[in-house]
Every structure is written in C-alpha cells, then in structure tokens.
Design goal:
By secondary structure, the protein is of the alpha/beta class. Helix content is 49%, strand content 16%. It has 32 helices and 23 strands. Strands 8-23-22-21-9-18-20-19 form an eight-stranded mixed β-sheet, sandwiched between helices. Strands 10, 11, 12, 13, 14, 15, 16 and 17 form an eight-stranded mixed β-sheet that branches. Strands 1, 2, 3, 4, 5, 6 and 7 form a seven-stranded antiparallel β-sheet that branches. Helix 23 links the parallel strand 22 (610-614) and strand 23 (627-629). The radius of gyration is 35 Å and the shape is elongated. The chain starts with 19 loop residues before the first helix and ends with a helix.
Amino acid sequence: MPLKPSTYGPAVEAFWREPTSSLLRTLDAPRRGLRQREAERRLAQIGPNLAEPSQTRSMLQKVVHRLINPLIAILIVAAAVSGFSGDLGSFAIIVLVVGLSLTLDIVQEHRAEVAVDALRRSVAIQADVIRDGAIVALRVSELVPGDVVQLRTGDLVPADGVALEARDLQLNEALMTGEPFPAAKTTEPCITSLPAEASNALFAGTSVVGGSGTMLVVETGRRTRFGMISAALLANDPPSALEQGVQKLGMLILRLTIFLTLFVLLAHLVAHRAAMESFLFAVALAVGLTPELLPMVMTVTLARGAQRMAKRQVIVKRLSAIHDLGAMDTLCVDKTGTLTEAKITLAAHIDPAGRCSERVLELARLNSAFQTGIRSPLDEALLAVDIPSGSSAWTRLAEIPFDFERRCLSVLAARGNDRFLIVKGAPEAVMARAVAVEVDGLARPLDDSHRAELVRLQDDHARQGFRLLGVAIRTMAPDQADVTTEDEGVLTLVGFCAFADPPKRDAAEAVRELMARGVRIKVLSGDHAAVVAHVADAVGLPSRRILTGNEIADLSDRALAAQIEDVDLFARVDPEQKRRIIRALRQRGHVVGFMGDGINDAPAIHTAQVGISVAGATEVARAAADMILLAPDLSVLGAGVIEGRRTFANILKYVRMGTSSNFGNMLSMALASIVLPFLPLLPLQILLNNLLYDLSEIGIPFDEIDEEDAERPQSWNIADILRFTVVMGSISSLFDAATFIILLKVFHADAAAFQTGWFLESIATQILVIFLIRSRRPPWWANRPHRVLVLGSLGALAAAAFLALGPVRSLFGFAGLPPVLLGAIILITLGYLAAAEAGKHFALPAVARREPNRAALGRQHPAGDAALNG
C-alpha cells in the first residue's frame, strides 16, 4: 500500500491534536512497527532523517552577490581606471582593500553552515526501532514516518512524533521550549496549538530524563522542528545595519560621481577641449570622489573594537556586529539562561500559613534522599540544601515510586521506634489524600476554610513563577516494614516547597544600564506567562502586557508589526514565533539584537542583526551567534554597546571627512576646469591628493569619541551625511576659489605653479580639518586626538609637502614656489580652518544629551571611561 503524504509538519498543523488511531491510519503504520521492506521504500521516497542544509551557494555566486554592492562596484571601476592610467599604486591599494572586504564577508557567511553542522551533530546517532516485530538498533538517518521507537532514560528523541506508551515518561525540553522544568508525557491528544503545551508530543533533539515509553514517528528530517531550525539558520535574512548603511552611502557617492563626471565631460566637450584629456580628467574626478580606503578603515576600526571587547571577555565572531551593537536600539532576550540561571533552586519551604518551615524542608529532603529511582531536577535542588540537624537519625524502610496517575512519591522512614510515611508530590495530588493540616505543630482537620487558604497560597506562588511540591506525613505502626498505595490516604499536610529558576545576580543592573543607554529590552520566552512576568519584575522590566504564542499565531505579520511596539514580554513562543517577532521589529526600522543560549534560540540569534550567546550555551546557539560572552556577568554587554558606538562614531568620522573633502575638492576642480585654460590638477595629482588624504585618516580607528556619542544608539542617516558633505564641501570650495584668484590675479602663476599651489592648499585644508570636525566641541575642549591619528595626519601632510616642493616634484608635474606664495597659502589654510570650525555646528546633527554624563558613565558602568577613551 503506498505511503500517504504526511501533512503534519510543525509549521503546517499540530499533529499532536490528532487521535493516535487517526495518525496510525494516515501513516499506514501498525503499532507493532513497520516491515523492513516498507521502511526501505519510504526511506527512498522521503529521504534520510537528517536536518540537512539546502544547497549552499557556490563560491562564485557568493562573490558575484557582493560585487552588486554600489560602493564595491565603484571601487572596482576606480581600480580599473587607475590601472589603465598608469597609477599602479592606487590600483594595488584598491584591489587589496576590495579583496580583503570580500574575503571577510564570505568567511562570515560560512558561520551559518557551521551552525547547521553543529545542529546535526547534536541529535541522536542510533535508536531502538521495531522492525518486522523485533527491536533493532538503527542509525537515526534510517527512520521514516510510521516507525515505532522505544525510549528509555538518557535517550535522545530521534524525530518528531507522539507517545504510544508512556511509563512515567519525562523529557527535558529546555533546549526547544526554554522551560527548565521536566515535561511529563502522556498518550492523550492535546487540543493546544503550542508545542510546549503538547503533553503527548515528542520532538527531535529533546532528551528523556525519567521513565520510558514508545513513540510513533510522524515527521523526519527537514520536516521536524529541528529541521525547521536548520533551515532558519540558512535563511537569507535582510542585510545588517552596517551593510545597509554602506549600501546607502554607495548610492549617494554613485549619484555624486555620475553628476560631476557627466557635468565636467559635457562642459569640456562644449569648450572644444581635447576629448581624451577631458575623459581622463573626468574619470580622475570620479576616482577622487571614491573613498578607496573606506573598507580598510572599517575593517581596522572593527578589528580594533574586537580587540578591546576581547579584553572584556566578549568574543566577536562577525566584525560588522560591533557596529550593529552600537546601533542597536532593541535587545530581545530569552529568559532561561539569559536573565535566569537556567538552574532550578529551592526558593522557599513554607507551612500551610505561608511561613518558613524547617520541618517541611527536612521531610522533603528525606523523601528525595531515600528514593531509589531517577532523581528529578526538583530532587537535586532539595538535596543541594544543607542537611537539617537530626537528619542522620532517619533510616529508610520502603518506598512507593512516583507515577503519573498518583503524581506523588512516598517513602517509609524510621526514627528510633517511630515509623512515618513521608509523601511528596503535586500539591493537588497531596491535598486530595490529606485529611488534616499541620498548624503550629498540631494536626487540624482540613476543612473548607483551610482548603481555600491553601488554594490561595498556591495561586499566589504560581503567579510569582514558582513551582510547588506538597509535603505530607502519616504516622505508621511501629512494626510496619512495607507500604502500599492504600497507605497514602489520611495524610497530614505539612507544607510546600517552592522552586524557581532565579534571575542572574547582574541581570537587573545590566537591564538598567542598557535601558539608560536607550536600548529597549524585550523578553521572548517559551515559558508560562506568569513566570515571564515574575522574572521581568525581578529584573526591573515593565510587565504591563504579555503577548502569548497562541495570540501571535492568530496575528498576520502586519498585525504583529502593529502591536510589537507596545509589548515587551512574550510568553509561550516557539522558535519560529521568536523569528517573526524579530522580523517585525526590523520591519519597523529597529536595529535588533537577540541574546539566547538554547537550540530554540538559534533561529532568532541568526535573524537578529546582533546575535549574542554565552559561553555555556549549546553549540548550536554559539555557532549561530555573532558574539559570545565569556563571563557570566551580563554587564559586559554594556561595555560592548559602548564599544560599538565608539566604532560607529569613528567610521562616521571617516565617511564625513572623506565625502565632504572629496566633494569640495572635486567640485572646485570641476568648476575651475571650465574657466581655466589648463587643468587645475593633473589626473596623477588628483589621485596623489586622494591617496595621501586617505592615508592620513588611517589613525581614525584609534581616535577618541565624544561622550554623547556613546549615550544613545547611533545609526546611518544619509540625509545628515549629505548635509555635512554639502555644507563643509561648499566652505572648502569657497576657499579653493579664493586660492584660485590669489594664484592667478596676485601671483600670476603659470599652470605648474597653479597646480602646485592649489595641491598644497587642498591637501593642507583636508588633513588639518580632521582635528576640528572629529568632535562637535571646540578643539580646545574636545578629547585629545590619539597619537596614531596625529602622527598619521601630520606625516601625510609632510609627505605631500615633500612631494610637491622637494627634489622629486617634477615627476608629478609640480613646480617650485616663492616663500611669499607659500605664506599666502598658509594664511588661506588658517582662514579655512576658522570657517570650518564655525560651519561644523550647522553641518553636524544635534545629539540629545542625558544627564549626568561622565559621572553617570563611571557610576553605572565601572569600565565606562575606559571603554570611551581606551
């Protein structure tokens, strides 16, 4: 009989809602297992049970994809022109910079493939499968829908399916759902649409921590939730914030380049200038507008930031993520392992009146210590507490193991001649067997009043995110040596133990610091809404409204994006919903970071512009992340944000300086070339000017920044860059015009002298203005420039003067100048610097400052000053 198509993919429909008999019919699968021949036919039809990645792009496709970037395309054209014009130095530099940029990008793309490989390695290798009526050990890759698999404690679930049999079956699903408590499994269908609430569903990659069972395989390979995560890690998400900014900048430069080139070429041809000379001059202008060293400056700046972050125990895997971290205005975090310790601890032990009770702790701990079965995380939490005084006087006599029908565990213990049955279990199960309640050491009848008070006590703790265990006791006959389930009646309730996954010690401080720096925190958790709200309150996050996975499932992407701004807490969300939330935030224009540590977090980590994980996270989460925190102290993220903003501020310095200076000079040359009988600068001199200026800015990655640049998220604003370019470029052109007039009218310079004089004025104004526009403040109030920037800038200026006035000047077409003319150029340069200082206040965008500044940095973040000033 042919296999019926499986339609129960996790993204399509919740297979756990179907009755088992219906699933067996759909899969044409008998309970006793498939025949080997039928399984082989299905394997050939469906494929192996592997979360294999889809076909990745070839190396050629990866390279071509990056060459489409406007800025890279401009640089390639500039390299070609430099090569044809004989400027081999510029050609070599541009090719080296572009090659380095492409190599880094391709290496970064490889991280997604590494993440998928790690994901594949984390699943089970073999499974016990029933084939032809016998149990055989098969490779997980050979499983098909319809297979029946046996599971025992310690096994990894090999595929997605439902429980056919469940004998006290408990699974650790924390890596998939984010909830640290073990999940009990049954065989009854669930009406929920959320995987985390499906008590009969078993998912690939989760592990059995208690009991045993048999599962029916429903989905394998890429159709499992594990397979969906694998596909999500390879999805082509929108470009990062840095990539988007560079693309926008490339388009701006491309437009300016085309405009100036066509304008100059047309004007020269109308003036009947030589066509070839006009073409070379226009092309030289185009190359002059191009910031050849922008990829190099960005790489050096980001690498410098990575080194500084490594000293603060943050490992950066993708360099551009440092910039994105500085631009980040929204940080989404998983609760478990990120805000909390991901470790269940005993939070309280209380009597029926809600008061702390050492007796409750002693009895609960005795129950856990004396049981012989697999201990749950709750037992481990109890046993981690110091032994109460007198505990060594107890001895174990008998035990009634835990099962899911009774939902409790009992041990018969003796102390001296006394015998006691100590019972621990679900509060409702223990209360159902209790007839009395212990108040102030005396047993009182469990009447309606006491029962109502106990229910209220449970509800209060549940709302605070605690999981309760009831503890009860019964006095037994002195000679009793064994017990049965019938002995679990007529109990006296002693109290409750409350368990929690506590917040990390530094979580609240880290949240306060990030929010103070303009980063909004959103919690995306697979846990219950009450638990999420409790943790949010504990770390200082607002919990006015919570959006659940069920509610998100009913929202379209547009409706989700409309609500996303007003909600900071999300509960019971699955990996795909986390991904939808992050995409919705990105569509709203936010730069989003995500911090998590589980397999269920990997798609969200990959989708966010800044994916963050921690050293103790799963291999999959670490592989998908852009940066990893080595220290458990989350405050290091605050230092990372400062470093990211420092990095972006320095990149923006180069962009502003390069575009404005190049635009001003090229505009001046374009206009001068129309009215002058000769070229204002030879093509080789234009390229030399541009090269020396770029080299002078190599020290920018080491420079200091204004404090206000680290206080709020910074992002690319092309309108601001264009305004700066036009304002500062126009000021530069005005002083260039003054230089032209003085050279022609006052000194009557010939072509070579004119070109030499203007080259010196141009390069001096371009380089020295760096020390003014590197900060919004006056130079005497700003942070001192880094010595690398000072030496690089003044060294480039000295090299320019040597090449223009020294013994090799004739090689570049320069001529000697009289001292008076050199003095005039110095005065013009000083006048320009004064005008630039006044004009920068109109060119630079205003930045809102919050108070206090440096004092706040030092108080909120001990490393604040160091992060700002090296």
